[in-house]
Amino acid sequence: SAINSEIHIEAYVTEGTAETLEPLIEKADIVIDATDNFETRMLINDLAQKTKTPWVYGACVSSQGMFMTVIPGETPCLSCLFEQIPVGGATCDTAGIIPPAVHIVSAYQQAEALKLLTGQIEAIQRGFVTFDVWNNSHMKINVNHVRREDCPSCGANAVYPYLQDWNTPKAAVLCGRDTVQVRSESLKRIPKQELIKRLKTIGKVEANAFLLHIFYEDFRIVIFNDGRALVHGTNDVKEANSVLARVIGL
Burial, 234: exposed, middle or buried (Cβ in 10 Å; 0-12, 13-18, 19+)? Predict the structure, then answer.
């Protein structure tokens, strides 16, 4: 408001679920992705397709960044590119991040939003752009051929899989234990050895045939083979999900 006294901001302090986001996205002109995990981005992607709302995907980690503008009915959607949620890879907690990568991604997203809001559709970036400011690389991938008629999120018979209950992480506070249990299909799909490798960048990992165990900041995290995780040290579901997102990238 200091920059623009006429702006009106409505803040919603809530968990980003299909139920909470759908009514907001339905009345939006455009959605700008400022999230930190693929599960939420896939949820936004499905809601954008369902409500026919343009959105601008953006992500960054370390010195790398990427963005893509998605226009329902015209461009491929995020699900066309990633047939399932990508697993593995670096997170901001395991690899860090430098501010220039964030600034560049957000600047691209703002420019794309301005094009959409002013009706300059012909100026939209029609590709998937990636860059690395440390290695001085910049690449644009033509994704026009990636759009799939059988895509479950934007195809002719779309079913919006990431809006389904089975694809939503289940979380519950364990009574009297200062612990939250989170169940996630994404976590279940991560190969165990890959998970161990990634967690070792954070600290000492203890593992047996049934689970992995690691300390992170003030939390003790136990990850089971069936896709369950216990986050000890909190009884706040949002905080537990945030910890897992930072550590594992869920």
Answer: middle
Global pTM reads 0.71
Q: Cα(162)–Cα(172) distance, rounded to whole angstroms?
A: 20
Q: What is the mean pLDDT of residues 8-22?
A: 85
What the block records as the tokens of 69 is 């503008």
The dihedral built from the CA positions of residue 95, 99, 100 and 106, taken in this order, carries a sign that is positive
Which residue is catalytic, options 77, 80, 92, 151? 92
Q: Are strands 219-224 and 228-232 parallel, antiparallel or unpaired?
A: antiparallel
92 is catalytic: yes
CATH code for the domain defined by 18-165: 3.40.50.720
Taking only the tens place, the pLDDT of each residue in 117-174 is: 999 999 999 999 999 999 999 999 998 888 999 999 999 999 999 998 656 667 778 7
> What whole-number percentage of the chain has pLDDT above 70?
92
146 token code pair: 């990636």
Domain residue limits, the chain: 18-165, 169-248
CATH number of this structure's domain 169-248: 3.30.310
